[in-house]
Amino acid sequence: MKAGVVGAGLMGSEIALVFALAGHEVVIHDHSDYALAGAIDWLRNILQNGVARQLYTSAVAGTALARIHPVTTLPAMADCQMVTEAVHELIDVKSTVLRALEEICQPTCILASNTSTLPISTLAGFLTPERRAYFLGTHYFSPVSRMKLVEVIPGIATDAAVVDKATDVLVGIGKQPIRIKDVAGFAVNRMLHALLIEAVKLVEEGVATPADLDAACRLGLGHPVGPFAMMDIVTSDLCLQVQEILYDAYGERFRPPALLKQRVAEGYVGGREKPGWLAKSRE
Fold first, then answer.
1. Active site residue 29
2. Which of 179, 209, 233 is the last residue of a domain?
3. Does residue 231 share a domain with residue 95?
4. With 80 as the cut, is the pLDDT of residue 64 above it?
């Protein structure tokens, strides 16, 4: 199968990688050659130096990278059988991409959104009724190369056979799909951000440091990674975007903490290059 991924950020690049590691040819799109080059460098680094190095031989890793084809124009997706949208968590951005893909891709191409919070049926509204049958959500978790879970979210009009086919594809690339009802935030992010919000409030109140709260979650709750390390991985600005969507949908319980807003405004967002919570806590 030939797969496509739109968006060469942390999520999109690793989604492309897991498809390539499973033997699929992958086209990854971004508007910037710089972003695409950074994505390939990132993938090479995690295959050579990250946890993924323990899972794959150098030969497998090299072959996988060779299957990933960076492009700056969406028409390169025209012959893909499945295309995953992994752009910014903004409805205007996602709707623009989905409309473009509908024009470019074959009628039976599965279109999947990696949105973490936006209802799939809302996004489906930007597609024609015929295309909605082939559209669903596939919400991966970061880092995609290590996290096995994918939430599969059908929209109102998603064809059951398309859900089954997408689920089979996900199993084939080594993921564990679970089917989730189409609601804002789905299931995992509603649980996760309740934790993240409370963790930031504990820091605001001076109860504990980010590093100590991470240790508490790892050693006391059995979590593999603490909430602040998690925010540094997925980026605090994305977390803020998600919490704003959840706040709009569910009200006060998901109000983003003031400290999170302040840190995002100052650029302490984490990710590949910028300092995050743990870097700040060591200053």
1. no
2. 179
3. no
4. yes
Residues 137 and 237 in one domain: no
Of the residues 29, 139, 193, 223, which is catalytic? Answer: 139
The whole-angstrom separation of Cα 139 and Cα 211 is 28
**Residue 161: is it exposed, middle or buried by C-beta count within 10 angstroms (0-12/13-18/19+)?**
exposed
Describe the chain by its helix, strand, coil percentages, rounded to 5.
Answer: 55, 15, 35
Domain match, 52 and 150 both: yes
How confident is the model over 228-237, as a mean pLDDT?
A: 93
> What's the pLDDT band for 283 if we cut at 50, 70, 90?
very low
| Nearest CA among 74, 140, 139, 133 for reference residue 109 | 133
Q: Is 183 helix (H, G, I), strand (E, B) or coil?
A: coil
CA atoms within 13 A on the CB side of 157: 15
How many domains does the chain divide into? Answer: 2
List, for residues 176-213, the tens digit of each pLDDT value.
Answer: 999 999 999 999 999 999 999 999 999 999 999 999 99
- Residues 212 and 104 reside in one and the same domain: no
Residue 45 placed within a domain: yes
The predicted structure's pLDDT at residue 280: 47
pLDDT at 53 over 70: no
Report the b/e string of 47-69 with b at 16+ CB within 10 A. Answer: beeeebeeeeeeeebeebbebbb
Please give the backbone phi and psi of residue 79, each rounded to the nearest 5 degrees, phi first: -105, 15
- Is the pTM here over 0.85, yes or no? yes
| pLDDT of 119 | 95
- In terms of residue numbers, what domain contains 251? 189-281
